[in-house]
Task: inverse folding
């Protein structure tokens, strides 16, 4: 198993990746990162900037587990807008390949104008699913050429609303390069939140070989008079990380488990939770740097 981190002190601009930052990642017990690089447009980031970023990461032994897919809307009913989104996705795959990234992380997008992870009734329609499958099929060759996994993250609020819909979409695309970036916290519902081990087992049973990476994120209900499930730092909620790590290790010991939802201040505790859980389960952490 490999442990990675996202967010926190990682920069939005790849020009700010430094050897010192990489050593900070390693000292926290992580061997890789998931970066979003919001400041770097995948269509026009200069090649020398990309190459220098890759050189620094490889020189310091930090793997780029994931970069972002830039939150394009792959389910848009407008063919003009959907085609534009596919071009962005293809560009993000080419950028990731040149960076030496293992994969990209992207959701399906949303018709909600306020953001790609927010609800809209269209998101759950058959047309949205059809548009998503079409967009992904049109991106397979770019993923294969770049040797980068196009890994999909789902959420209750978007088209990939649960593990079964995700399997349906991935089965339809039928490519070893289009896979699932498993984030269980996004799919856990209120009746399930206090006993997540069987829920995680069900999700793994359904998605199984489609999974190629994992976000370690937690979820818990907040005391409000309408339903609100808050996601965040591992260890703050009810996700059963013993089950999560056990099932990921069984899929492939080389797959990364990436902390998401933690603040910089929370990151040492999140790392310690993963390391302690791995030791408890007898899981070997690969390329570990300095153990937390």
Result:
């Amino acid at each position: 198993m490999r442990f990675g981190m996202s967010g926190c002190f990682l920069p939005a601009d790849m020009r700010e990746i430094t050897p010192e930052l990489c050593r900070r990642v390693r000292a926290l017990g992580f061997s890789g990162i998931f970066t979003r690089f919001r400041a770097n447009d995948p269509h026009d980031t200069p090649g020398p900037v990309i190459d220098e970023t890759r050189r620094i990461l490889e020189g310091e032994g930090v793997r780029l587990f994931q970069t972002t897919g830039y939150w394009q809307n792959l389910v848009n009913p407008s063919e003009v807008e959907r085609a534009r989104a596919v071009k962005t996705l293809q560009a993000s795959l080419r950028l990731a390949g040149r960076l030496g990234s293992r994969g990209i992380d992207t959701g399906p997008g949303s018709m909600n104008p306020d953001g790609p992870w927010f609800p809209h009734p269209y998101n759950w329609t058959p047309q949205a699913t059809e548009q998503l499958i079409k967009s992904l099929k049109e991106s397979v060759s770019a993923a294969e050429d770049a040797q980068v996994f196009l890994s999909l993250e789902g959420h209750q609020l978007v088209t990939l609303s649960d593990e079964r819909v995700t399997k349906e979409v991935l089965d339809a695309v039928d490519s070893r390069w289009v896979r699932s970036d498993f984030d269980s916290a996004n799919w856990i519902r209120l009746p399930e939140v206090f006993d997540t081990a069987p829920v995680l087992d069900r999700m793994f049973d359904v998605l199984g070989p489609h999974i190629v990476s994992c976000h370690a994120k937690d979820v818990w209900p907040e005391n409000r008079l309408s339903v609100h499930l808050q996601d965040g730092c591992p260890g703050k909620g009810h996700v059963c990380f013993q089950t999560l790590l056990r099932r990921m290790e069984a899929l492939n010991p080389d797959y990364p488990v990436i902390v998401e939802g933690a603040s910089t201040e929370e990151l040492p505790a999140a790392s310690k939770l993963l390391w302690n859980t791995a030791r408890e389960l007898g899981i070997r952490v690969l390329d570990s740097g300095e153990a937390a």
